[in-house]
Structure formats: C-alpha cells, structure tokens
C-alpha cells in the first residue's frame, strides 16, 4: 500500500509539472505572438487605419507615369513593402523616402532597396504620417483609404510646397479637382499640384483649388 501511495504521489507531481510546463509554453507563445503582431495591430487602433495592401504592377506603373517629368524628393506615405519607393529610386530622378508604421515592413523595404542597388537613394522610416512634416518633399504618393482623405487633404493644404505634386492612389481627395486620371478600377491614380497663386476665402482657408499635373504628362488621361 505504501508503495502504491508513493507511486501515486510521483504521478501527481509529474502531472502537475507537465501542466505547468504547458501553461508556460502557452503563455510564452502568446507573448511572442503579441510582440510579432503588435506592429500590424497598432495601426488599426489609431484614428484612421491604413492597412498594408501591396501595390499592383499596374499601380506602380501608373504612379511612375504620373511622375514623368518630375524630379527631386519623393515620399510615399504608408510605404508598405517599399515597392513604390524602390521603383521610383530606380528611375534615377528622385531622392526617395518611405514612411511606414510597421517596423517589419521598414526593414524588408531597406533590404529590397539594397538588393536592387538603390539603397543610397532611399530612406525608410518608422513614423506616423500625421506627425511627419511633408513640406520638404516635392512629390508625395499615398495609397490611402477613403476615411483618411479629408484629413490628409487638410494637412496637405498647410504643408504641400508651392511646386509640390501629389499622386493619390485608390481614392481621390474629396474637394480637390484632379487635372489627370490614369488607369481604372483599383489601379486608378489621381494627380494634383498646388497652383502658385492660391485664392483665399474670407475665413482664411484656401479656396477649392484647381490642381494640375506636370506639364510633361498628358492631361485627363484614361488608360
């Protein structure tokens, strides 16, 4: 009887040990999952969610067509895996920056730029686009969501440089009038540029402006 009790006690202790080990492993896995997923979930907890949706080959092509004849600095807001920034840098006419909240995508973008030999002309930063001053950039690209476009329009009214050009993908700005539209369906891009002489309303806000594209690009193009 004593032997049986001892064996039962050993089995009980062993069972508790296995249970604790499983709890520890489960808890550890949950922590790891939380750490890995945090950069992906965090954007969704913000006021406006900008999800990672890779640009199609046609979208990239349309953006580059829209920027034909342009040069200088370029920033992609919500640059994702960096394909727009890398493609623009390969054109040799831009000093490119990608702004992205997800640090994993930032590191992947840096690797992509290094892999094709354009790392010297690209910078990828983990940052919030709403807290980023856009004035230094003469070319701005954004793959936005519909909910963010009014707020971004207001931000650009304050920060877009006098010769600045904006390429909006997937969704246009609600008040600005584009002078050119390229592509169709999800591949559509809209082109805008701040006019040199801005008319001001009585309330001090810029009036609805007639934004125009680079003179080297065909106006009102649909392809």
TrEMBL record:
<dbReference type="GO" id="GO:1905706">
    <property type="term" value="P:regulation of mitochondrial ATP synthesis coupled proton transport"/>
</dbReference>
<keyword id="KW-1133">Transmembrane helix</keyword>
<feature type="transmembrane region" description="Helical">
    <location>
        <begin position="20"/>
        <end position="42"/>
    </location>
</feature>
<dbReference type="InterPro" id="IPR026170">
    <property type="entry name" value="FAM173A/B"/>
</dbReference>
<keyword id="KW-0472">Membrane</keyword>
<keyword id="KW-0949">S-adenosyl-L-methionine</keyword>
<protein>
    <submittedName>
        <fullName>Uncharacterized protein</fullName>
    </submittedName>
</protein>
<dbReference type="GO" id="GO:0005739">
    <property type="term" value="C:mitochondrion"/>
</dbReference>
<dbReference type="GO" id="GO:0016279">
    <property type="term" value="F:protein-lysine N-methyltransferase activity"/>
</dbReference>
<keyword id="KW-0808">Transferase</keyword>
<feature type="region of interest" description="Disordered">
    <location>
        <begin position="198"/>
        <end position="223"/>
    </location>
</feature>
<dbReference type="InterPro" id="IPR029063">
    <property type="entry name" value="SAM-dependent_MTases_sf"/>
</dbReference>
<keyword id="KW-0812">Transmembrane</keyword>
<dbReference type="GO" id="GO:0032259">
    <property type="term" value="P:methylation"/>
</dbReference>
<keyword id="KW-0489">Methyltransferase</keyword>
<comment type="similarity">
    <text>Belongs to the ANT/ATPSC lysine N-methyltransferase family.</text>
</comment>
């Amino acid at each position: 009887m004593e032997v049986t009790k001892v064996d039962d006690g050993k089995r009980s202790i062993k069972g508790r040990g296995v249970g604790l080990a499983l709890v520890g492993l489960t808890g550890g896995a949950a922590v790891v999952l939380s750490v890995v997923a945090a950069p992906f979930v965090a954007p969704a907890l913000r006021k406006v969610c900008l999800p990672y949706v890779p640009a199609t080959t046609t979208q990239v092509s349309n953006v580059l067509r829209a920027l034909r004849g342009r040069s200088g600095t370029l920033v992609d807001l919500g640059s994702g895996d960096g394909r727009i920034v890398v493609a623009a840098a390969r054109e040799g006419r831009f000093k490119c920056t990608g702004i992205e909240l997800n640090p994993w995508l930032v590191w992947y973008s840096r690797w992509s730029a290094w892999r094709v030999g354009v790392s010297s002309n690209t910078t990828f930063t983990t940052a919030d686009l709403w807290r980023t001053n856009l004035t230094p950039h003469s070319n701005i690209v954004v793959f936005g969501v519909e909910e963010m476009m009014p707020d971004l329009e207001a931000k650009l009214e304050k920060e877009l440089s006098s010769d600045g050009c904006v390429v909006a993908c997937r969704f246009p700005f609600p008040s600005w009038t584009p002078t050119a539209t390229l592509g169709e369906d999800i591949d559509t891009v809209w082109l805008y540029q701040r006019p040199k002489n801005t008319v001001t309303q009585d309330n001090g806000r810029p009036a609805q402006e007639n934004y125009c594209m680079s003179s080297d690009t065909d106006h009102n193009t649909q392809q």
